Amino acid sequence: MQPTVIIVPGLRDHVEEHWQTHLHRELPESVCVPRLHAHTLSCRAWVDALDANIAAARGPIVLVAHSAGVMMVAHWARQYRRAILGALLVTPPDFGVPLPEGYPAPHVLEENGWLPTPMERLPFPSIVAASTNDPLARFTRTIGLARAWGSKLVRLGNVGHMNPASGFGPWHDAHTFIRQLTRPVHEQA
To answer: Rounded mean pLDDT of 77-105?
Structure first.
């Protein structure tokens, strides 16, 4: 049975040229957690929306998260226990430090339940795909997150925040990482 890929976007509005949008089109059976129109900064609302999508999915599940979507997955894993094959976690932000202009301030994120960042080992295999020049997180912070979560760390190089503003649209390596997460455990060793 093919796994259900659940795409977990970040907090920002839908971007047609984002790699997750392309991936969703390339995987017709995939599901994308819908964007919230109310309570858009509420971590709880996002985590509940993610859980509703996971609960409704059929068969094995792979999560593909970007930016704040990575934090949604970490908070979800702390609160819920459902079977997940694995998660691809791309360019997690560091919500504990001031982000670039246009992003919420740390105190706003804390008020909305995003902080502190969960640092427990994730109960499923995961890959953190990290940029070495992400404006939303120092690479050393991303290394620390990957270690805490028990994730395999993949260094993507200087790819900014892996979004259209950094020059990225389709990202075919996502398919490779998804395949790695869906291989039987004895093949992953």
So the answer is: 94
